[in-house]
Structures are given as structure tokens and as C-alpha cells.
């Protein structure tokens, strides 16, 4: 399943983050520290998706994702300041299983795509985008043979 | 001729200890036998407290060797025993391997064929050695159900499913699918039981089965009925053996290919890295990672090297060497047990792990610790009156044909180690009870809430209906 298609159904009004303070993380529960997917909308192939403890990149919890054959998608929609540059940050660890895919997506456009990641400890991925006032961030994952671990997502702006 | 006797190599490689065993038996102060009695009240654990059970089955070792002072199983003895409970008096139910596996999951007694590991005996003198995969015939229900509860009568390898007018044979997997009203069998679904067989389908031509959707091995691998089992001897690239994967010996499972494929799957692979942090791929890794996906019942079968069957591995052990036996099994445990202990289900106390063996060496055919084996209460069934006697072992003069009941009452003393974070005190040794594969099956059925059907109407299959649950001696942390 292509992420752009999967994202079509992911926008949830309930997930909208209130406020537009530039210093505020646009994401709610970006590190899964509630112990679950509170704040996120999960769609697609939700098999082998959960929040666990022990070995997180930050805090106590992280998510494991092992969808087989198609993608699981976690997404959040949020308000931001139109025209302002935001930095998206996130971490993944991989056990090297194939086929695997990790994607970070803004408004349906894939910004980071890692296919068949080798076995690797927590690895940082980041990109910038220009806010439109109301955007949607999504993380797409698939790992047929193993599990991807994901943690510590944030969307912030350096503008005070 | 022993050249073609690879499938039983571990059983015959040891020197005979019959005389020593007999002396030892007379010296034992036998604890009360805990199976063979008519009724037990269930394990002393609240319903639903243990929601997952994992059985890890290793091969062909005497208790005294595995847990003795000179055991090569260093990790097992020095690291695992302090984390769990050693059940001293745990016994196999038959000789050789396959009958034990059958009893573990179904409560069925062995047949003459399964007590020969379903070997094609003619192939022993005309290698390669192959196995058979024929039906238990006639496969009728025992007429005396009080004496032989739920038993299928006959000889052969693959047990009949229930049919109109016939009780047939079921497995604990069938019981759990009934309990949970399972109707779809997508391998990605939450499944209530799974067999994880290492290397299954590594060589599709050898093992058969359908390619697994995650690309590691094949699912529900077994020969066609009446076909040759080519897995008797390990290959360098594939050390899977049908006879260590019990669920494929039941028509109740294999007659439903999609269901079988979802449940009988390859274990996966392990990449051992220096300094720890091994990498695991495959269904066991995935199923353990999230408790919501962890099956209620898991049966783990390492390959012929890693379960200790082969003294020298045809392929590699988990660390890349060729040493087999307890050394290989111990290495496998050293790498896989941390994965299991790190699972959410284990950490929250809902997972019971039982590590055991199929049988002792062939010269220990006891059914319990009692000097008088007739007091064990072990079955003397209609198919084999001495379940610890194997015709093929007799053929090679490893065993002497029995002349009386209870001469070969069981599969010998193997021991077991049980692990649970909540209900078992770590580092304990239990020499109180006598248990075997039938009592273990009964315990698992009870813990998982199977309360209907079976041979007794209370959810206990076959001879599990006559067994006694693991008691407070096992669950020693109330």
C-alpha cells in the first residue's frame, strides 16, 4: 500500500493539536509515553503494532511495528503557522528484516523513506517543511520478518 | 546397521545403563505418584492468571546428565535454574521421540510406529533412511473408554480426526480454537496457539509445506499421507525434523491447510552478535513482542542440532559450530531465553515457560521415580503395553523385548524447568511431585480455561484425563 493513498483516511479532527505556539511540539504523545497510541490515529495494517517498554530511545516507552505485507500508518493532524519552517524529528531501530519500510510523510508527501533498513540501533531521521496552518504528519511502517522500533517523534520550529 | 540409523543416533550412542538404572531405582525413596490418579483439582493458580504457555522441547537426555555436576549445559544450570524451578521428577512417556511429542499435545498413547519414530524400517538397510507418514489404522476409538480414555486404537503415524460416530484424536490446538471460536486463519491474525519449528521449510523439497508469507521457510510442512518423510536425517542447510513437530501428525490439523499453515510455522532465524544484542527474525520474535499477539499456547521445537538430538550437527549450531548434544541445546537456550524473558507476557507474569525434553536415553524407561513401576499409574495402552519399549531399539539390541507389563513403563527421567515471574519462586528445586507429558498437558488445558470436551468432558484429552495437574509444589509462590 502506498503511503499517500493510506493517508487519505488518516486525518482525524480529534487528533488536532490545539494552539500555534512556535516552541511547542506539534505532536501529542510523540514518544508514546502514555504507553499507548493516544493522540495518534492508526490505519492500514495494524497487525503487530503496539507500544512497549524497555529499550526506548527516550523515556520509558516506544512503539514496535511489524506489519506483514502492507503498511501500518500512524498519523496526527495539527495546527501550525502558515509559512513557518518546522523540523520533523524521529527515531527508528531495525532488526534488518525484509521486506521493511519506514516513511515519514507530511500531507501525503513522503519526506523520508527507508526501505529494507539494515539491522541498526536507534537512528535519527529529520527533515524540514513549511507549515500551511493545518498539516498532517504520518509514519508508515512495514516489517515482514521482524519489527521496526520507532520513538521520540517531534515537530518543532526554531522560531521563538 | 547403524550407518543408516541417524534418526536414533542420540538414543543408541550412549552405553547401556540398564543395570545401573535398575540399581538406582531400588534405592529411590519414591515420592507419591502424581499421575494416573482419577481426578485432580486443577493447578493452584487463579483462572486467567497464566494466559500464555510456552513449551520448549529438547531431545534425548537423562536427568542426571542434563542437571548433573558435569553437565555441558552450563547456561541451563548456572543461569536458568536460578531463574526458574527445577522439577526433578518429570518423566517422558515413551521411547523413542515421536510418541512423546504426540502425548504432549494430544494425550494419545504411542503406536508401534510412533515408537519407531515412524521410520521406514526397510530403509535402515537401504539408506537414505526415510520415515513414513501413514495413517493410524484401523484408527478406531478404544472400546473401553474408562481404561483408555480418548484413545485411538491402531498402528501408524497420523491420527484420525473426529468424525461422525468416532471420537478420533484432537490436540490442544483444536481445543483452543474451539474455546476462542476461531474461524479465520490468517497468519497475521492473533492466533491462540502456534508451533514454531526451527528450519521448517528451509529446504522446501525436503520438508514440503507452503512458503511462509514472511519469506522464512514453509508452513505446515509434512509429507503427503503414505509419502516418504525425508527429514529423518538433518541436512547442512536444513535440520528440521517432522517427528519433532507433533501437530502435523493429526488429521484434525493437516486436513485444513490454511489453518495448519497459520499455526504451524517456522521458528525464524537468529543472528548472534558478539557482545549480546542478538537479532531475531520470524514469527516467534513477532509474536512475543506484543502481548496482544502472543498466542495462549506455544510449542517451540529447535532444529535437530539445537535441540540436542544430533551429537555432531549436520549443519551449524546457533553459534556457528558443529558441536551438538547438550552443548548445542545450551547455546540455543543462551541466545533464545533472553528473548523470551524480555517479552511483555513474561515480564508481567502471564507467561509460563516449561523447558523439558522428549525422553531420556533409551536405557531409562521409567514412568515415575517409584521402584515399583506398576505403582506409577502410567498407561499400558492398547497399542503398546510397554510404552517405553521401541521395536527399532529392540531390532538393534539396544532394548530387550519386554516380557511383562511395566518393564518399560515410560520414557525415563528427564526433568523440566518451569519459569513464571509471578507463581514460581526462582531458584527452587521441586522433588515432591511426579509428572509426565500427560500431566503437563492437563495442566496447560486447565490453566488456559479448557473446561469442556476431551476424554472426561472437562477438557482433558486422552490420558490427560487420568493425570494430575502441576500442584502447589510447582506453583510454589502463591
Instruction: List the strand order in the largest sheet of chain A.
Output: 1-4-9-6-7
From the N-terminal CA to the C-terminal CA of chain B, the straight-line distance is: 53 Å
Number of DSSP strand runs of chain A: 10
Query: Beta-sheet strand percentage of chain B?
Result: 15-25%
The largest sheet of chain A, given as strand count, sense and whether it forms a barrel, is: 5 strands, antiparallel
Helix count, DSSP H or I runs of 4 or more residues of chain B: 15
Anisotropy-based shape of chain A = globular
Description:
The complex is a heterodimer of chains A (160) and B (478). With 160 residues, chain A is mainly β. Chain A is built from one helix and ten strands. In chain A, the strands form two sheets. Chain A has a five-stranded antiparallel sheet with strand order 1-4-9-6-7. A five-stranded antiparallel sheet of chain A has the order 2-3-10-5-8, with no helix packed on it. The longest helix of chain A has 4 residues, at 3-6. The model of chain A is unreliable at 1-22 (pLDDT under 50). With 478 residues, chain B is an alpha/beta fold. Chain B is 22% helix and 15% strand. Chain B has 15 helices and 21 strands. Chain B has helices at 9-12, 18-27, 63-66, 74-80, 97-106, 121-124, 172-179, 204-207, 251-254, 257-263, 283-289, 325-341, 344-347, 391-395, 437-447, and strands spanning 52-58, 85-87, 90-92, 131-132, 137-141, 152-155, 193-197, 210-211, 218-219, 228-229, 264-266, 269-271, 279-281, 297-301, 351-357, 412-413, 416-419, 428-430, 435-436, 453-454, 458-460. Chain B has an eight-stranded mixed sheet. Chain B has a three-stranded mixed sheet with strand order 16-3-19. In chain B, helix 5 (97-106) runs parallel beside helix 15. Chain B is globular, with a radius of gyration of 20 Å. Classes of the chains: A mainly beta (160), B alpha/beta (478). Chain A binds chain B through residues 45, 47-50, 52-54, 64, 66, 68-69, 95-99, 119, 144-147, and chain B through 187-189, 213-216, 268, 271, 279-282, 285-286, 289-293, 342, 344, 347.
Amino acid at each position: 500500500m502506498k503511503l499517500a493513498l493510506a493517508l487519505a483516511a488518516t486525518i482525524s479532527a480529534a487528533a488536532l493539536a490545539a494552539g500555534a505556539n512556535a516552541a511547542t511540539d506539534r505532536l501529542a504523545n510523540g514518544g508514546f509515553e502514555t504507553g499507548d497510541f493516544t493522540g495518534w490515529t492508526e490505519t492500514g495494517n495494524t497487525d503487530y503494532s503496539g507500544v512497549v517498554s524497555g529499550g526506548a530511545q527516550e523515556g520509558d516507552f516506544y512503539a514496535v511495528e511489524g506489519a506483514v505485507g502492507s503498511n501500518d500508518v500512524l498519523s496526527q493532524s495539527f495546527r501550525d503557522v502558515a509559512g513557518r519552517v518546522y523540523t520533523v524529528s524521529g527515531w527508528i531501530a531495525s532488526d534488518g528484516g525484509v521486506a521493511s519500510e519506514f516513511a515519514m510523510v507530511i500531507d501525503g508527501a513522503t519526506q523520508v523513506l527507508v526501505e529494507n533498513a539494515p539491522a541498526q540501533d536507534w537512528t535519527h531521521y529529520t527533515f524540514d517543511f513549511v507549515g500551511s496552518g493545518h498539516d498532517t504528519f504520518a509514519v508508515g511502517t512495514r516489517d515482514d520478518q521482524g519489527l521496526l522500533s520507532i520513538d521520540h517523534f517531534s515537530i518543532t520550529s526554531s522560531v521563538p | 546397521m547403524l550407518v543408516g540409523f541417524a534418526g536414533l543416533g542420540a538414543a543408541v550412542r550412549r552405553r547401556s545403563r540398564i543395570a545401573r538404572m535398575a540399581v538406582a531405582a531400588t534405592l529411590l525413596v519414591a515420592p507419591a505418584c502424581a499421575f494416573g490418579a482419577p481426578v485432580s483439582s486443577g493447578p493452584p493458580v487463579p483462572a486467567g492468571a497464566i494466559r500464555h504457555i510456552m513449551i520448549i522441547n529438547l531431545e534425548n537426555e537423562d536427568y542426571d546428565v542434563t542437571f548433573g555436576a558435569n553437565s555441558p549445559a552450563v547456561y541451563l544450570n548456572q543461569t536458568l535454574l536460578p531463574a526458574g524451578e527445577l522439577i526433578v521428577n518429570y518423566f517422558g512417556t515413551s521411547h523413542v521421540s515421536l510418541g512423546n511429542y504426540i502425548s504432549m499435545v494430544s494425550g494419545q498413547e504411542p503406536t508401534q510406529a510412533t515408537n519407531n519414530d515412524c521410520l521406514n524400517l526397510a530403509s535402515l538397510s537401504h539408506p537414505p533412511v526415510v520415515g513414513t507418514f501413514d495413517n493410524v489404522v484401523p484408527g478406531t476409538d478404544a472400546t473401553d473408554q474408562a481404561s483408555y480414555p480418548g484413545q485411538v486404537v491402531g498402528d501408524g503415524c497420523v491420527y484420525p480426526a473426529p468424525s461422525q460416530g468416532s471420537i478420533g484424536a484432537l490436540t490442544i490446538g483444536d481445543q483452543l480454537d474451539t474455546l476462542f471460536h476461531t474461524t479465520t486463519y490468517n497468519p497475521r491474525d492473533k492466533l491462540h496457539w502456534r508451533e514454531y519449528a526451527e528450519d521448517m521449510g528451509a529446504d522446501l523439497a525436503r520438508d514440503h509445506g507452503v512458503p511462509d508469507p514472511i519469506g522464512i521457510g514453509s508452513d505446515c510442512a509434512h509429507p503427503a499421507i503414505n509419502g516418504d518423510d525425508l527429514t529423518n536425517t538433518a541436512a547442512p542447510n536444513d535440520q528440521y525434523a517432522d517427528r519433532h513437530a507433533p501437530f502435523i501428525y493429526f488429521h484434525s490439523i493437516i486436513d485444513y491447510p490454511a489453518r495448519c499453515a497459520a499455526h504451524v510455522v517456522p521458528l525464524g532465524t537468529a543472528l548472534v552478535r558478539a557482545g549480546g544484542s542478538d537479532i531475531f527474525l520470524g514469527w516467534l520474535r513477532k509474536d512475543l513482542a506484543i502481548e496482544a499477539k502472543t498466542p495462549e499456547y506455544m510449542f517451540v521445537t529447535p532444529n535437530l542440532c539445537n535441540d540436542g538430538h544430533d551429537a555432531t550437527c549436520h549443519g551449524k549450531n546457533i553459534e556457528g559450530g558443529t558441536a551438538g548434544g547438550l552443548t548445542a541445546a545450551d547455546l540455543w537456550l543462551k541466545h533464545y531465553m533472553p528473548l523470551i524473558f524480555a517479552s511483555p507476557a513474561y515480564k508481567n507474569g502471564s507467561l509460563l515457560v516449561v523447558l523439558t525434553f522428549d525422553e531420556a536415553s533409551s536405557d531409562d524407561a521409567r514412568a515415575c521415580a517409584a521402584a515399583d513401576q506398576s505403582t506409577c499409574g502410567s498407561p499400558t495402552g492398547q497399542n503398546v503395553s510397554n510404552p517405553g519399549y521401541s521395536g527399532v531399539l529392540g531390532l538393534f539390541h539396544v532394548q530387550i523385548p519386554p516380557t511383562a507389563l511395566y518393564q518399560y513403563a515410560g520414557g525415563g527421567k528427564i526433568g523440566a524447568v518451569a519459569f513464571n515471574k509471578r507463581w514460581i519462586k526462582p531458584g527452587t528445586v521441586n522433588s515432591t511431585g511426579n509428572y509426565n507429558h500427560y500431566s503437563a498437558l492437563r495442566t496447560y488445558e486447565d490453566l488456559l480455561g479448557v473446561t469442556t470436551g476431551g476424554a472426561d468432558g472437562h477438557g482433558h484429552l486422552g490420558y490427560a484425563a487420568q493425570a494430575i495437574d502441576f500442584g502447589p509444589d510447582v506453583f510454589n509462590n502463591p
